[in-house]
Design brief:
Structural class: alpha+beta
CATH topology of the largest domain: Arylamine N-acetyltransferase fold
Largest sheet: 9 strands, antiparallel
Helix content: 25-40%
Oligomer: single chain
CATH class of the largest domain: Alpha Beta
Strand content: 25-35%
Number of strands: 14
Shape: globular
Distance between the termini: 49 Å
Number of helices: 7
Radius of gyration: 18 Å
CATH architecture of the largest domain: 2-Layer Sandwich
Number of domains: 2
Length: about 270
């Protein structure tokens, strides 16, 4: 009798991100896995606006992202990707980040963001598939040196005795602007449960204020931000207003591979239309 696959199968996860390459724990494989993940799995918060609780235990993450082909936000995406890397033999650990708020110049609380750090042949690499529009490949963990990525230029600096910050160079500002700060203390999934709940329920969380579904492409990015469909291709940006639920759900299927079977989403910008 044929044995049933394990409910958390690396084989199925790799198929989900359309990865068929080598799987040994090398930098080349890590970079290929990260890029494949970003091209296949969207950054999205739709469950928050559908009233569906987001759980960050491994079975729940696997079921949502792999089995039902959904996306998620940082706790889900980086949490499950961390599991994949460990299963494939990488020395990877979860870290806590605090997101920078450009409007206030302040950082969020501990566990505001989840990322991970991978060590390969004595060198460490910052890995993040859960921050939306961010680096497409691992960032070498070296301080005060420009880090070039296909998606821009980044910089890691020491912030204080306990933390570092990663910034991105913005052409329009002609300077590095912080993305988030983080410490090197190893964390586990359970540590993020409180902030995961906060971001689902608090009116102070930007995730409760609008819907977002965004995915990288080979030459840009596609984003559904509330009722705006934004397509960036070869640095050319176009924006379309999505005015009907059928149009919105069709966009989810076409651009993000999400087949929405629940009730229509309802959120402030579109509640009168959907």
């Amino acid at each position: 009798m044929e044995s049933r696959p394990h409910p958390t199968s690396t084989k199925d996860y790799l198929a989900r991100i359309r990865y068929a390459g080598k799987i040994e724990p090398t930098l080349g494989v890590l970079a290929a896995l990260q890029e494949a993940h970003l091209l296949a799995v969207p950054f999205e918060n739709l469950d928050i606006h559908a009233g569906t609780p987001i759980l960050i235990d491994l079975p729940s993450l696997y079921r949502k992202i792999v089995a039902t082909k959904r996306g998620g936000f940082c706790y889900e995406l980086n949490g499950l990707f961390h599991w994949l890397l460990v299963e494939l033999g990488f020395n990877n650990k979860l870290l806590s980040g605090r997101v920078y708020d450009r409007s206030t110049g302040e950082y969020g609380p501990e566990f505001d963001h989840m990322l991970s750090l991978t060590e390969i042949d004595g060198q460490r690499w910052l890995v993040d598939v859960g921050f939306g529009d961010f680096a497409t490949r691992p960032l070498e963990f070296v301080v005060d040196q420009p880090l070039m990525d296909p998606n821009g230029e980044f910089l890691i600096e020491r912030r204080d005795e306990e933390s570092y910050r990663v910034s991105r160079f913005l052409l329009q500002d002609n300077r590095y602007v912080p993305e988030y700060c983080f410490s090197l203390k190893e964390r586990c999934l359970e540590d993020f449960a409180g902030m995961c709940l906060f971001h689902q329920t608090s009116p102070k969380s930007h995730f409760t204020r609008k819907t977002i579904c965004s995915i990288a492409t080979h030459d840009g990015r596609i984003t559904l931000s509330d009722n705006r469909l934004i397509v960036t291709e070869h640095r050319t940006r176009s924006e379309t207003v999505v005015s009907e639920w059928l149009e919105y759900s069709a966009a989810l299927a076409r651009y993000f591979g999400i087949i929405w079977t629940d009730s229509p989403l309802r959120f402030p910008a579109l509640s009168s239309r959907f």
